[in-house]
Every structure is written in structure tokens, then in C-alpha cells.
Amino acid sequence: MISLVPVLLILTFSVFCPVKSDDTLTALRFGTTSSDYIRFNFDMSPFRSSLTICTWVKRVSTANSNPIIFNYWANSVHEILMSAIGTYNRVVTDDVLDSSNQYFTTPANNWFHYCLTWARSTNMIQIFVDGQLVRTGQTSSYNWRDLHSSGELWFNRLQNSVSSQYVFGGELYMFNIFSVVLSPESIKKIAKGGLCFPLDEFSDSRILKWEDILTKSRTGRVTEVTLTVMDTAYVKSLKANLESLTVTLTRTQRELETVSNRLNRTELQLEAANERVNTTVEELATAKRNLSNTAEELTIAKRNLSNTSEELTIAKRNLSNTSEELATAKKNLSSTTEELATANSNLSIKVKELDTAKRNLSTTATEEELATAKSNLSRTQEDLGTCSTTLTDTKEELAESRRLSNITKWDILYTSPYHNKILTEELIERLKSNWDVLSTFVGVNMTDTIVEHFRKHDVEKGDCDLEISDIIDMLEQLVEENNMTLIRGLISHFKENHNNLPCED
Questions:
Q1: CA separation for the pair 224, 470 (Å, rounded)
Q2: Which pTM does this prediction carry?
Q3: Is 138 helix (H, G, I), strand (E, B) or coil?
Q4: Considering Cα of 398, then 403, then 407, then 413, what sign does the dihedral take?
Q5: How far is CA 131 from CA 56, 77, 232, 462, in A?
């Protein structure tokens, strides 16, 4: 718990106002009979539409049942009536707030602050005790009027009564009437300020002043009382403020405990958040590493894609060449089909002729005619065989053309020298030397005859199986069929590939 000693010292110096040697706090103590009073006339016109009456009150005797503090008598009515115990709280004679005794509970011989407000604009009356608004009421409609402006002001008794029950018999201090309705905040400020609270800020509206009342004529036992700084009113104010401060401190301590708990929870949440941040940082680092790896993989993929694109371009060119070859093969097949149709037609004619010859033979045929028919039949069968062979070759060429549409340089490995063979250095060297041979034939028309030459003599027979006569026949055939010039590369080929021992030049 926070110590209240420093707070008490601060409160002592803030509530107790300093009193100079030439300053006094003067209160009035009234006697206990109806002959002890103050009475004077005053112009009440400044208060005809609104007012606030505030005073410090201390009861000394509790014997009287209706102790009157103040009575404004005007136009033969009790225009304003204020009681020390809340019995009367009237303005413009209206009794709407009478019998408010339950709010006036301050024990005898103790000061309390009492205010009464009224406004013609709202016809509302308010009671304040020790700065707190305790009751509000609206006057009756027949009292909706201005305050009478001319009359007598009485203190310590009811104007037209000598009964002791209306005698106040206590002390008053700082009785003032303001021409406006003071705000609840201002009234609370005055009450909390204590007996010596300065009213300078309300000087414009403070019309009837306590200083003026002290100068008025007094009847009976009405004496001045000088208040000391340590008057009981100060002690009471100090106690009230201390109690209020204690409540505030207690509430503040609870709020601090609540804030402390929230802070502890926040620290835990912050630690958890830091852990999440650290985890996130680690995940981010991992993600960066993965991103770097992905970037490298992407670069490799781009290079592979570039290579694949180049291979695709080459494949497209090869496909284009193969498509042209396929178109040529289709034309050849069409021509062959036409020739076959012609051959079939001729065969049909020959069959008819043979049938006719047979019929003729059965009747008038001679041996010479029979021989002729046999000869024609034999030639016809030969022609039919030739057509069948041509058709088979054409079908094979078409199949080969279709196969070549997907051929690659690796298909050579399907040939007999390599397929299903163990790959040796000799085979690799042989494959390289075979392709190296072609470099010497740049400029030569690569016809079927040239290709068949390499297949027949460089693969099937070997290097030294040809006789000189065979080479001469081969060269004549190449020249006749291909109109080929014996360039240096061609001659060098035969010298290098067909001149090995035991072969001769």
C-alpha cells in the first residue's frame, strides 16, 4: 500500500489557506432566541431571473425543530426561505424542495457548505451540500415568475414569528448571493476549497457579499467569531479530502495491479512474439537458400531448354527434308500404281486373248498357233512378275520413307555391324573412319548408287575383295548412271580403300 504521509502533508498545505497577520476569518454567532437577528433592506432586482445563495453553516444547538438561516420577506410572502436542517429550501415561495432533511446530516459543531440555486428560464431549484448536488425540483406553474425585487432580509428567525422553533442559534460564514446560477463544478470548487477559499473569480456575479453583511445592524446577541486556521471546518475538510484521496489511492492501487498483470501478460506475449519472429527469420533464411537453389536450377533448365530448342530446330529441318522425300515417294507410288493398273489391264486383255486362243485351239488350233500362245503366255507371266517386283520395291521404298521421317544419326547403331554387339574401340574407330571417308566427297551427288557402293563394298565385302576389272566396271557404271566427274576426292577414295595388299592398283 502506498504511504499516505507525504500525501497528507501536501493536502495540509493545499487546503489550509495562509492567513496574514492583518487578515481574519470572521463568522457570526447568533443567539438562541427570536430577539437575536439581523434585518436590513436590499435591492434584489439583480436576482429577479436567477440566483445562487451559498454559505458555510455550523449548528450549535439541536433543540429547535425548524432553524431558519435566512428569510427574504417580500410582498407579504416568504420569497426565499433556507433552513439549517433542510426543512425549508424555497425560492419564489415554492416548497417543491422542502423536507430535504435526509441530506443535512452534518453533526452539530461542524461546518458544512450549503447552496441553493434557481433560474426563471427553467423554473428549477437545486440544493448542494458540501459541493454535491443532492436534490433538484421544478417550481409549480403558478410560481413561474420573477423574484420580487424589494423586501427585507432576515437572519436567524422567521420574519413574522417569534417562536423559538425557527431560531437558528448557530454560526454563519461567507453568506453570499450571486446573480447567476453557478455551475456544479464551481460550487464543488468553492466547497472543497474550504472556509478561506477566495471568491475573486466570481466577483462580477457576487452582488450581496459577506463583507457587506458584517457591516449591517444587529439585534440581540449576534457576535463576531474569529476563525483560526485550524478551525474544525478545516479539519473536517481535510478529513473529507483525505478520505476521498484514500479511496482514490485504493482505486489507483487496484488499477496499478491490473496494469501490472496486463504488463506481465504483455511481456509473455512479447516473448512468444519474439520466438515467432526468430522462427520466421529462420524460415526466411531457409526460403532464401531454397530460392537461390531454385534460381540455379532455373538457369540450368533454361540452358537445357535452349539446347532442346536447337535440337528441335534441327529435327524440324530433318522432318522437312523427310517430308519432301515422302512426297517424292508418294509420287513414285502413284506412278507405280498407274503402271500396275495398266499392267493389270494388259493382263486382262492377255487372259482374254488366251481364252480365245484356247477356244480356237480346241477347235481349229494348230501346233504353230499353240506354240505362239504359249510364248505369249510366258511373256505375259514375265511382265506380271516384273510388275509384282516393281510394286514390292515401291512398297519397300514407301516403308523406308516413312521410317526415315523419324531417323536420327543414332539409327546406324541398329545396323548389323553394331546392333547387339559389344561396343569395342575397334567398332568406334571403324564408325569414325567410315564417316571421315565422306569428307572427301564434298561436291558429289549422293545418289542411290553411291550409297549402295559404300554399303556393298565398305561394309559387306571389305577393303580388298575387288578385282581391277570390278573397279573399272563400277566406275563406268557410276559415270553412266550419275553423269559423275572423277574428281580428286573420288579417285583418292578408291586408292585408299581398294589398293591395300594383296590388292593391286
A1: 166
A2: 0.47
A3: strand
A4: negative
A5: 11, 29, 18, 133
Number of H helices and E strands in the chain, helices first, is: 9, 14
> Which residues are registered as beta bridge partners of 219?
37
Residue closest to 472 by CA, chosen among 500, 498, 496: 498
**How far apart, in whole angstroms, are the C-alpha atoms of residue 135 and residue 262?**
41
Question: In the beta sheet, which residues pair with residue 440?
Answer: none
| Interatomic CA distance for residues 302 and 293, integer angstroms | 14
Output Rg (C-alpha) for the chain, integer angstroms.
69
pLDDT in tens, 342-374: 878 888 898 888 888 778 756 555 567 668 868
307-349: pLDDT as tens digits: 888 888 887 888 788 788 878 878 887 887 888 888 788 888 9
Give dist(CA 58, CA 49) in Å, integer.
30
d(Cα 168, Cα 62) in Å, to the nearest integer?
9
Tell me which range, 189-203, 248-262, 349-363, is most confidently predicted by mean pLDDT: 189-203
pLDDT-derived band at 499 (thresholds 50, 70, 90) equals: low
- List of residues 6+ apart from 445 with CB closer than 8 A: 482, 484
Task: Quote the cell numbers at residue 199.
Answer: 471568491
Q: How many degrees, rounded to 5, is the angle at CA 103 between CA 74 and CA 51? A: 35
What is the distance between the alpha carbons of residues 402 and 399, in angstroms, rounded to a whole number? 5
At residue 316, the pLDDT reads 86
* Pair 53, 70: CB distance under 8 Å: yes
Task: Give the pLDDT confidence score for residue 135 in this predicted structure.
Answer: 98
3-state secondary structure of 207: strand
Residue 290, H or E segment: helix 232-364
Q: What does the alpha-carbon distance between residue 496 and residue 399 come to, in Å, rounded to a whole number?
A: 35
The C-alpha cell at 62 is 439541536
Q: Which three cell numbers stand for residue 312?
A: 528441335
Distance CA 276, CA 282 (A): 10
C-alpha cell at 422: 559389344
Instruction: Name residue, grid cell 489550509.
Output: 16
Bond from prior residue into 502 cis (ω within 30 degrees of 0) = yes
Contact between 265 and 257 under an 8 Å Cβ cutoff? The reply is: no
User: What integer is the mean pLDDT of 425-430?
Assistant: 82
DSSP state letter for 130: T
**In this model, does residue 43 exceed pLDDT 80?**
yes
Is residue 333 within 8 Å of 399, Cβ to Cβ?
no
Residues 150, 161: contact at Cβ < 8 Å? no
> What is the C-alpha to C-alpha distance for residues 158 and 64, in angstroms, rounded to an integer?
13
